[in-house]
TrEMBL record:
<keyword id="KW-0256">Endoplasmic reticulum</keyword>
<dbReference type="InterPro" id="IPR055374">
    <property type="entry name" value="Ribophorin_II_3rd"/>
</dbReference>
<dbReference type="Pfam" id="PF23861">
    <property type="entry name" value="Ribophorin_II_2nd"/>
</dbReference>
<feature type="domain" description="Ribophorin II N-terminal">
    <location>
        <begin position="31"/>
        <end position="268"/>
    </location>
</feature>
<dbReference type="GO" id="GO:0006487">
    <property type="term" value="P:protein N-linked glycosylation"/>
</dbReference>
<comment type="subunit">
    <text>Component of the oligosaccharyltransferase (OST) complex. OST exists in two different complex forms which contain common core subunits RPN1, RPN2, OST48, OST4, DAD1 and TMEM258, either STT3A or STT3B as catalytic subunits, and form-specific accessory subunits. STT3A complex assembly occurs through the formation of 3 subcomplexes. Subcomplex 1 contains RPN1 and TMEM258, subcomplex 2 contains the STT3A-specific subunits STT3A, DC2/OSTC, and KCP2 as well as the core subunit OST4, and subcomplex 3 contains RPN2, DAD1, and OST48.</text>
</comment>
<dbReference type="InterPro" id="IPR008814">
    <property type="entry name" value="Swp1"/>
</dbReference>
<feature type="domain" description="Ribophorin II third">
    <location>
        <begin position="382"/>
        <end position="509"/>
    </location>
</feature>
<dbReference type="Pfam" id="PF23860">
    <property type="entry name" value="Ribophorin_II_3rd"/>
</dbReference>
<dbReference type="Pfam" id="PF25147">
    <property type="entry name" value="Ribophorin_II_C"/>
</dbReference>
<feature type="transmembrane region" description="Helical">
    <location>
        <begin position="577"/>
        <end position="600"/>
    </location>
</feature>
<keyword id="KW-0812">Transmembrane</keyword>
<dbReference type="InterPro" id="IPR055373">
    <property type="entry name" value="Ribophorin_II_N"/>
</dbReference>
<dbReference type="GO" id="GO:0008250">
    <property type="term" value="C:oligosaccharyltransferase complex"/>
</dbReference>
<comment type="function">
    <text>Subunit of the oligosaccharyl transferase (OST) complex that catalyzes the initial transfer of a defined glycan (Glc(3)Man(9)GlcNAc(2) in eukaryotes) from the lipid carrier dolichol-pyrophosphate to an asparagine residue within an Asn-X-Ser/Thr consensus motif in nascent polypeptide chains, the first step in protein N-glycosylation. N-glycosylation occurs cotranslationally and the complex associates with the Sec61 complex at the channel-forming translocon complex that mediates protein translocation across the endoplasmic reticulum (ER). All subunits are required for a maximal enzyme activity.</text>
</comment>
<keyword id="KW-0732">Signal</keyword>
<protein>
    <recommendedName>
        <fullName>Dolichyl-diphosphooligosaccharide--protein glycosyltransferase subunit 2</fullName>
    </recommendedName>
</protein>
Length: 646
């Protein structure tokens, strides 16, 4: 029973693995020769620059074209090293690496060599360990075994304190250079890989962009190979990382270009079961109906042939518009002169003009879907051209013109007549299959006047393209310019391979004179009339009597107040000369005066700006006054109670 369960589990595992491999998507692009040429220009500019890092990465990819150029680059290398503000261990690494790659004859200064040989302990970052270790490698100097062991322990200690993505990336690259004792770093590969960010379900990248992603990928692949560990990614992850790196092919710096190429090399170096490949349509995807041969390229990410040439390449052809299947299993055959090109002959399936898609399967491991179209050919079945009276009741004498000839005699039409053209378009190779095109125009051109007028030919219910022009009604389109016009039929469509312009006939058109009053056109560069700004006229004010009555009504409450005070008498017995009393009344009076000034001349913002300090002063004085009055009344009431008790 246990054996049966294990066998069943193993079968499920193998089946799942097969399905996973069968559904691996291939990328749809690669680093093309045009991309490589552009990157070579980036390296050429970098090696001629005054940047130490750019010279180093450029020297890894291009060589000086002459001994004189090599000498100039080497001399400039030492100068920019001295002027560089990078950390010593980093700029020494760039200097040693570039000098070795360029084979500079100059000897390295003793001071720089001592800085490289004397490795300080402990080192606080994996980046410094990498630069110092690789600088020794460039010099061909063997590091002492004691120092080697210290570096391993140092690396382990740094990773315990600093496990950022950048730190892990440099640690992976360092571990491949150290002794087998650094195998512990391989345990951190999974910690780094789980931090990859997925973009749109198609790409994987690490925070930090191209430099960090390339650093981790190249380092992880290197130590996995050195310590015989499984690859750090599966096929689907490799596909998504490849998509990300290819999306960054437009890098403009030598460092970016170098690490991009290195990352794509690392992905291409995977086993055939994991390495992403590119399946790409060759050409513009437009095939002729009489020879429909579909060519595709199957290459690695750098555009090179695969290590193992694919043997079983099949495609399923679909009609994109209808969604039906034209061919189930179309085989692609390799091109004898090119190991990267594979061709499928679709002639046995007789595809007609239209849009198609093909689902390509390579060795039951990779799949790709590409679109293509079959171009048809249009044929003029019949064209009729006639001129008649504008009166619809009169008959029109028509002439048949054969494609691609031009009617030998010149036709004439005046403003009382109309021009009629009918043309039937069919698909070449058939006798009655009419065709609808995207563009069907009738063009009139007057050479003498250099005047061109274009009209659209409409297709009627019988699928015949028809053009009917009333000469008199269309005189304005021709600017009333009579004369000899070429009549050209233009037929075009994205799915046609033989779109054409056909000079059908020559017409002498006679238009009426423009009876409209001639409008004097103002010269383009003449002085324009002066623009005088006019303000809106003020509204009429009400009569003086109405204003006086309104003012009197506003003052009525104040008059009534004074009358009431006179009748009742004013009690000022509680008025004191205390500062708060005087301040409150002055402030209150000031507010009334401010409102009066606001009424006469101030605007709202000016009034608020002045009201704020006056109101604050009045509030403080009023608060103090009310507290004093309340205390006075409380004391008076207390004294009255005491007397009553006595």
């Amino acid at each position: 029973m246990i054996k049966l369960a294990l066998s069943f589990s193993l079968a499920l595992l193998l089946n799942a693995t097969y399905i996973s491999c069968a559904t691996n998507n291939a990328v749809d692009s690669h680093l093309s020769s045009k991309d490589l040429q552009r990157l070579q220009k980036v390296f050429a500019d970098g090696i001629a620059s005054n940047d130490l890092q750019s010279i180093f990465y450029s020297s890894l990819n291009v060589e000086p074209t002459s001994d004189l150029e090599r000498t100039n680059v080497c001399q400039r290398l030492f100068k920019v090293h001295a002027a560089s503000k990078l950390k010593d261990y980093e700029k020494d690494y760039y200097l040693v690496g570039a000098a070795r790659t360029l084979k500079c004859p100059e000897k390295l200064p003793q001071e720089i060599l001592l800085n490289i040989y004397n490795i300080p302990m402990p080192i606080t970052s994996t980046q410094e360990i990498f630069y110092r270790l690789t600088a020794h490698k460039y010099l061909g100097v063997q590091i002492d075994e004691t120092i080697f062991k210290k570096l391993v322990k140092n690396l382990e200690g740094v990773l315990m304190k600093e496990d950022s993505l950048t730190s892990l990336g440099y640690a992976f690259n360092v571990a491949s250079e150290l002794s087998p004792e650094s195998e512990f770093v391989t345990e951190r590969i999974e910690d780094a890989m789980v931090q990859a960010d997925e973009v749109d379900g198609k790409m994987l990248q690490f925070e930090g962009g191209l430099s960090v992603t390339s650093l981790i990928i190249t380092g992880a692949f290197k130590i996995s190979s050195d310590f015989s560990k499984p690859p750090p990614v599966d096929a689907q992850q490799a596909y998504k990382f490849a998509n990300y790196f290819l999306s960054r092919r437009s890098v403009q710096t030598p460092k970016g270009a170098h690490i991009l190429i290195e990352a794509l090399k690392s992905l291409s170096s995977l086993t055939p079961q994991l390495a992403p490949i590119c399946i790409q349509l060759i050409g513009n995807g437009q095939l002729q109906a009489d020879s429909p041969r579909l060519a595709i390229a199957i290459v690695d990410l750098l555009g090179k042939p695969l290590k193992e040439s694919p043997l079983n390449i099949f495609g399923k052809v679909l009609l994109r518009k209808e969604g039906t299947t034209l061919a189930q299993k179309v085989q692609f055959a390799p091109k004898s002169s090119d190991k990267t090109t594979f061709i499928a002959d679709l002639s046995p399936y007789k595809p007609t003009r239209g849009l198609y898609a093909i689902e390509i399967d390579v060795n039951s491991k990779y799949s790709q879907k590409v679109n293509f179209k079959i171009l048809g050919k249009v044929k003029v079945q019949q064209l009729e051209l006639g001129i008649g009276e504008s009166d619809a009741s009169s008959s029109i004498k028509k002439q048949i013109v054969a494609y691609p000839k031009t009617l030998p005699e010149k036709l004439a039409a005046d403003h009382t007549q109309r021009v009629l053209l009918k043309v039937l378009l069919i698909e070449e190779g058939t006798t009655d299959k009419t065709i609808t095109v995207h563009q069907a125009f009738v063009r009139f051109y007057n050479k003498q006047e250099d005047l061109e007028v274009i009209y659209v030919a409409e297709q009627d219910s019988s699928k015949v393209y028809k053009f009917d022009m009333d000469v008199g009604a269309r005189a304005g389109d021709f600017k009333y310019k009579s004369g000899l016009y070429e009549m050209v039929l233009i037929v075009g469509d994205a799915s046609l391979s033989n779109s054409f312009e056909w000079h059908v006939a020559n017409l002498n058109l006679d238009f009426p004179h423009n009876v409209k009053a001639a409008i004097k056109k103002q010269p383009i560069r003449s002085v324009l009339p002066e623009i005088i700004h006019q303000f809106r006229a003020p509204e009429n004010r009400p009569p003086r009597l109405v204003s006086d009555i309104f003012t009197g009504l506003c003052l009525t409450p104040l008059v009534i107040l004074f009358i009431v005070w006179h009748k009742l008498g004013i009690n000022v017995s509680n008025f004191t000369l205390a500062p708060s009393t005087i301040g409150f009344h002055i402030g209150f009076g000031g507010i009334l005066v401010l409102f009066t000034v606001f009424w006469l001349k101030l605007n709202m913002f000016q009034t608020l700006r002045l009201l704020l300090p006056i109101a604050t002063f009045t509030f403080l004085c009023g608060n103090r006054l009310l507290r004093r009055l309340y205390g006075y009344r409380s004391a008076k009431a207390s004294n009255a109670g005491t007397l009553a008790t006595s």
